[in-house]
């Protein structure tokens, strides 16, 4: 074979391989597309609605509501999502709405779907309550490993990056928006709620779930119920829950409250009867909650997370 023919063959082979690689990259990009579409809620205010599902390899962790506010100074992001890839796509979604830069990121709490996107906002001030930052530092690595186990390569390259600024409750004025930062607890030891006084939009984080069963790995139900009382007194126009559709009335708060009251009563009664944990997993769930996505799964997890605490309380009272 002549050198000229050999070169032509090599060039053809290279072209075929390159084409295959490009096609593979395009397929991979399509496979890992979160499909983020900003939904406008109010003046300058958009939300990205997540699925009412658990982490899996189809949704890549897109199970959370994140949001952004376009101010005259720049964009304020509320929660950065479950992965670096999500936050990168979130930034592209923001760029389709405005040319203004992101100037601040708030994390409402330390659960992975709310902060593992921080990595994609490097160099931008990221703020959270002190308890949230402590949780991010302590559990971020384990969270990332677990999310990768559940969601696979959607999470590839994600590293846990804690917020770099500890917030104090109060009002921050940013680009024509008066943001009231409210420090609560119950879902976790540090739950940030953001009320935009300029629009009346309340970003409740995971203190409120709507049409999706609440998660409880770090919960104190008594504190959570007290936090819901506080939220019910806030003069909001529209509430954005951590999971589920935004609502303009109190139904999301009330649904979360009723679920938690039932859950606490069920666990306490079981402990008083002396039931073993295994006996609770088949407990009947009231009809108003049974049809909510993940009701059975989250109840089982809540039993695992919380039941020993109720057993100990019952034992102390009996002494």
Structure in words:
The chain is α/β, with parallel strands linked by helices and 319 residues long. The longest helix has 29 residues, at 3-31. The chain has helices at 3-31, 84-97, 112-115, 130-151, 221-232, 251-273, 277-280, 287-290, 295-318, and strands spanning 39-42, 45-48, 66-70, 75-78, 102-106, 126-129, 165-167, 170-174, 177-184, 191-196, 201-209, 238-243. Helix 5 runs antiparallel to helix 6 and helix 6 (251-273) packs across helix 9. The strands form two sheets. Strands 1-2-3-4-5-6-7 form a seven-stranded mixed sheet. A five-stranded mixed sheet has the order 8-9-10-11-12. The radius of gyration is 23 Å and the shape is globular. The chain has nine helices and twelve strands. The model is unreliable at 12-29 (pLDDT under 50). The protein folds into two domains: 1-31; 39-248, 4-Layer Sandwich (Metallo-beta-lactamase, Chain A), CATH 3.60.15.10.
Nutshell version of this structure?
Helices cover 43% and strands 20% of the residues. By secondary structure, it is an alpha/beta fold.
Give keywords.
319 residues; alpha/beta; Metallo-beta-lactamase, Chain A; 7-stranded mixed sheet; 5-stranded mixed sheet; globular
